[in-house]
Amino acid sequence: MPNRKVVLITGAAQRIGEQLARMLHAHDYNVLIHYHHSATAAEQLANVLNTTRPNSAKTIQADLTNSAEVISLAMQVEQCWGRLDALINNASSYYATPWGAATEHDWDVLIGSNLKGAFFLTQALLPALKKQRGCVINIIDIFADRPLRDHPLYCIAKAGLAMLTKSLALDCGNAIRVNGIAPGAILWPATTLSDAEKQHMLNRIPRGEIGNPDEIARTALFLIEHAPYINGQIIAVDGGLSLT
Question: Residue 33 maps to which CATH number?
Answer without folding.
Answer: 3.40.50.720
